[in-house]
Specification:
Blueprint (H helix, E strand, L loop, with lengths): L15 H4 L3 H22 L1 H7 L3 H32 L5 H4 L9 H4 L12 H25 L2 H17 L1
Length: 166
Amino acid sequence: MSLAEFDEKSLDGITMRTFAGSALFDRTFEEGMSLVEEAARYFDGRGREEARTLPDQAAMQYSSESLRVTTRLMQAASWLLVQRAVHEGDMCPEDATADRYRLGSKEICFGGRAEDAAGLPQALQTLLDRSDSLYRRIARLEEVLFGNRQTDVRAHFERLEQAFQR
């Protein structure tokens, strides 16, 4: 089963530790780290050259969209590394549910591409699509693995705070 095709039933009862030891995790981890390396090579090489040839408006859009790709990939890589640390026993599962280890920057990462992105280099458009797909799949995996656990805990503490402030 590919990551793009996973369904929630296949993850029933799975824990962070067992998920990070699965073939699905291995494929996702490999895809994520490979995409990080590919994007870095592109932005440091050919992408830099392509950006120099763009008109001002497109160059500004290129900068914005390249930051979106980078943000998605860094968030995805960070999340994947935390899951691997849990699996290897370097981090306890409870710590991994803390907000600081959750997938972040959703307002940037889920943001849509600019309407006139057709003027951007094809390689950047491909990185935008692939990074979006990876980020969305990891966000869905996180939702399946963690659910609203952190939100429920936070809500409970907020109720306790309100009760003791009275």
